[in-house]
What we know:
Chain A contains nine helices and no strands. By secondary structure, chain A is an all-alpha fold. In chain A, α5 packs across α9. Chains A and B meet through α1, α2, α3 and α5 of A and α1, α2, α3 and α4 of B.
Amino acid sequence: MQDLITSTINTFDVRAQYPDSDAMNKLEEYFRSGDLRAKASLAISANAKSIITKAVAKSLMYTDITAPGGNMYTCRRYAACIRDLEYFLRYATYAMLAGDPSILDERILNGLRETYNSLGVPIGGTIRAVQAMKDVTADLVGADAGKEMGVYFDYICSGLS
Amino acid sequence: MSMVAELILNADSEARYLGPKEIHIFQDFLKTGEQRMRIARFLAENESRIVQNGTNKFWERCPVTPSNSGVERKTNSCMRDQGWYVRLIAYSIMAGSEKPLEEIGTIGIKEMYNSLEIPIRNIAECMQCLKEEAVSMMNEEDAAEVAPYFDFIIQSLS
């Protein structure tokens, strides 16, 4: 995986250059945002279960997906859905700490759409759930950290669609 | 890899969020970012001076060496490599870890210079001169941050 520091280094190393002033400013901004990111990670890890519960309630519950014949019907499939959402939340939190989305590609997104399609998991419903997680998380961590987390939730959605 | 990536991969290997202690380490690391960026900037701005002075010192101590043989291409390659090592050290200071330096510039360093028929002891002496020059331009605190990375290169040559 990369974080903002290593992705900057890798970008400039292939050109045998020092990071330019744009890249240096971005890094400095990242270093200044340490407390914000740290607090958000602690809040999310303490509330991960309830974030998922609320996000599912907002997006998937009482829809065709959870009704008989839907892809979340049967406890086993419901549990699998919850587990995947937990993964999304944890990896989005890692990416937020890193300031870089590469870990999402490596651990979540590569091949996910194909897997979901072959399992019949609806992409639209998944995206609705991730967007709901984004809203619930922003309510919990506040606007600034919520915006940063939003970048990575959106990254998951665009990787799925 | 930087310290941030190390913390995350460690937590991920146990499928958990970062714990309070790891979050403290993360916060402390980012707090020192400003100092580390300042040092990286300093190295970037002064690279050519460090390399020029370092080279002069190196030739004083070690006059019989390929870069001092009057072959311009060899002199240029030597000074280019020195500049690259200063840059890799700047990367490592930004990352707070010797990993970038190691991954880009020290794994295989002995094999490479051996194959180029450049005496390893001379390279080590050259890095020592580079270190002395860089450190002499800095205050004590910044010098203490930079010196270990030069030492890391010298150790990888021994």
